[in-house]
Amino acid sequence: MYRRILLAIDGSRSSLLALEQAVSLALVTHAEVCAMFVADDSDFFLEIAHFNRPALMADTIAYGKQVLAQAGRRLGAAGVRWSSRLAEESGSPARIAEAIIAQGDQWSADVIVMGTYGHRGVRGAILGSVSEHVVARTVRPVLLVRDRSDGDAL
Q: How many structural domains compose the chain?
């Protein structure tokens, strides 16, 4: 069954729901969880606003450390063995996805658990989808968790 669960987390509501799924799955299978945060500066809208990228990346890394610490507290409180990984990536959602896939390969993950936003239309096309890229390119099973609190139904 699953012995190693890679949890890709970004602090969003859907990724926190994915954290809960990873906890449940780990408890049932006695698996270890590696929580991963990819700090990136790939937001399309930042190009337009001309943000200070180094300062933004430093803030993103600090936020990532907070997200990983929060995930670690939740995993530890549940009695799940865990580790964490913070990766830095500049570029597109595809490059972020490749960082997740590479970590899954390097760590020999049995499954990747991650949240998804389910954006459609123009916003989805512009922003791309990290989860879509992961599913399309990895050979590992992927469990996607979607936040449906916005009332959007499939």
A: 1
Q: Name beta bridge partners: 34.
A: 6, 83
**Residue 36 is encoded by which pair of tokens?**
């991963």
Q: Domain residues for 122?
A: 4-146
CATH number at residue 87: 3.40.50.620
Whole-angstrom distance, CA of residue 77 vs CA of residue 41: 32
pLDDT, tens only, 90-132: 777 888 999 999 999 999 999 999 998 765 544 444 445 899 9
How many CB atoms within 10 Å of residue 127?
16
Please give the model's pTM, rounded to 2 decimal places: 0.87
Beta-strand runs (E) in 56-139: 82-89, 111-116
Of 29, 8, 18, residue with least CA distance to 93: 8
> Does residue 56 belong to any structural domain of this protein?
yes
Specify if 75 maps to a domain. Answer: yes
